[in-house]
Amino acid sequence: MKRTIWQPLVLGVVSGLLAGIAMVTGLSFLSPGITDNAIGFFVTLFLLAAALGGPLAGVVAPTLFLVIGTWFGPPDVKELLVDPVTFWSNLLALVTSVVLVGLAYRLIFERMKMPARLLAWVGIVTAYYVISIPSSVIPQYWLNENPASEILPAVLYGYEIYYPQAIFDIFFTSLVFIALPKRFRRPLWYLPKQTSEQNSAVQNE
User: Fold this and answer.
1) pLDDT for residue 60
2) What DSSP character marks residue 170?
3) Residue (of 120, 113, 107) closest to 190 by Cα position
4) Domain definitions of the chain by residue range
5) Other beta carbons less than 10 A from residue 29's beta carbon
6) Of 11, 91, 106, nearest in space to 51 by CA
7) DSSP of 58-103, one letter per residue?
8) pLDDT above 50 for 197
9) Whole-number mean pLDDT of the chain?
């Protein structure tokens, strides 16, 4: 199996398992909200997995996390996820948003150096939340035939309860990128079309 496949696959599996374990063991703290999520490490792990592992890791990690949550999560989480509409809408929103994060990180990695890359990363994480919340809420309300007038308040409420998580994700993932050795900041899921001399320069950014 090619390196650009198995490395992202392993990263996605490990990230999904860690996120699921964090939720099941209570390391991700819960509070009332649309999805009963509060500040935790699961989205942080998804973002890092997607950035370094690309689309494959971005599909595997949240999928594994939601499956673990459905079978082994806290009672309130299981109650939500056993509903097919909630499960599939969350899965689609998470996978789509996280895959876009991976593609966006590749773009900024190729075009920007540290520390400017961190500023672009802040924009990527912010865009993730801007996109993922309505992508999850709107299908649930539409498929459950809830009044359309309730959708906008639900989306706004989602932004209200998730902005602390977004700040945490930006802070924690930025620290990870700063702490990582330079060669490990490169996305694992593609082989850059560069000469060996150019590739060495990129890895040493």
Assistant:
1) 93
2) H
3) 107
4) 3-184
5) 12
6) 106
7) HHHHHHHHHHHHHHHS-HHHHHHHTSHHHHHHHHHHHHHHHHHHHH
8) no
9) 80
